[in-house]
Amino acid sequence: MSTNWGLTIDCAHPAKLAEFWALALGYVEPPPPAGFASWEAWLTHYEVPEEEWDDGAYLADPDGVKPSMSFLKVPESKVVKNRLHLDLRVGGGRETPWETRWPRVVAEVERLTAAGATVIGEHELRGRPDHVVMADPEGHEFCVV
């Protein structure tokens, strides 16, 4: 039996970063738990102080299949390279002809750059572009492949 898991990203601005990753992955804010009309009602019920309401943000796969994502506010900024990163597999995999795969990668890089990501570098395989390393608006690295 596998374990249900989610990914948590430490950041300075949870709502803003969640907005970027919702766009990047097609994820959505999950509905409030059963019995609550809103997340604010849930927070109020559990007596979470209002000054902490923006300390986290949450995303879910709209189909309920893929892992959830959490964004937690932390006081320190990111200072070194990630030891774990996401690969956004938009190209179709290396079994897809390069002429089909690479334009998909380029289009996604352009879309994510417009949303606030930055390109860190482009990597080659066998003499032609293969994937792009990017950083989200707070500097967390990820690849577009």
Walk me through what this model shows.
There is one protein chain. The chain is an alpha/beta fold and 145 residues long. It has two domains: 6-73, no CATH class; 86-144, no CATH class. Helices cover 25% and strands 27% of the residues. It has three helices and seven strands. The chain has a four-stranded mixed beta sheet with strand order 4-7-6-5. It has a three-stranded mixed beta sheet with strand order 1-3-2, with helices on one face. The longest helix is centred in the last third of the chain and has 17 residues, at 98-114. The two termini are 30 Å apart. The model has no long low-confidence stretch (mean pLDDT 95).
Spell out the key features of this protein.
145 residues; 2 domains; three-stranded mixed sheet; four-stranded mixed sheet; 3 helices
Number of helices: 3
- The low-pLDDT segments are none
Question: First CA to last CA: what distance?
Answer: 30 Å
Number of domains: 2
How are helices and strands ordered from N to C?
EHHEEEHEEE
Radius of gyration: 18 Å
> What is the makeup of the main sheet?
4 strands, mixed
